[in-house]
């Protein structure tokens, strides 16, 4: 199972990705949490894992990636990344530190002024999602970059379901409508989570998307607010997210 957590910046993607990772872990899954947002600096803290080398760094950075793309005769030690099938065992240990059994993989970060755009990160993420083999007890949760650029790069065709996070703002409601359309274009089903939800939000969102697509609602919680404020591990268990994950699993088994 591969879930792509999407939404606008600040909507709660990272928070809900960690809550989902923990929920799936409690259900007995082997969880890989993928940090695909080059502007996330604290996901490892929320997940309670040490900061590690990014996947792009292990590939020699942007220059190394370029060399792999151009390799006409890739050597076994340096296979053509775009054709390789991956399993858990292929990810170098040093890029996937485990925190309470959840493994976190960072795709890449912008670290230097003037180093160029984030396209190489998208260029790594798409084949990674496409070729990564998950077994029935494996679960990958991808905390996607804010916004919709990854749809333009066709990344979102390589997940089993998009999880659209909506926060209480007009901007987020409009984006939800666009996410719905883009996910249909990608051929990937979408389920929405209302975050920081209350009755006013529930009423307002009904004018933008079909309420049947809303699979979970999470209200504002002090524990989550404080974990985000202080950059500490999320230990909070949200029954709504546990329920969402059970529903996602049964939908996956049924499909
Ligand atoms: N349900 C919630 N209750 C309280 N605070 C929340 C909740 N969801 C997210 N937050 C806070 O909102 C902020 C943005 O959340 P974050 O997960 O970082 O968003 P994103 O990854 O989409 O940018 C963080 O400070 C986080 O702690
Ligand atoms: Mg984030």
Question: What does this protein look like?
Answer:
It is a single chain. This protein has 255 residues and is of the alpha/beta class. The protein has one domain (2-254): 3-Layer(aba) Sandwich (Rossmann fold), CATH 3.40.50.300. 39% of the residues lie in helices and 17% in strands. It has ten helices and eight strands. The protein has helices spanning 13-26, 43-47, 55-58, 61-70, 119-131, 149-152, 170-186, 199-205, 222-230, 239-254, and strands at 2-7, 30-36, 98-99, 102-106, 138-144, 161-166, 190-195, 214-218. Strands 3-4-2-5-1-6-7-8 form an eight-stranded mixed sheet, sandwiched between helices. The longest helix has 17 residues, at 170-186. It is globular. The N and C termini lie close together (11 Å). The mean pLDDT is 90. The structure holds adenosine-5'-diphosphate and magnesium ion. Adenosine-5'-diphosphate (ADP) binds next to helix 1 and helix 9.
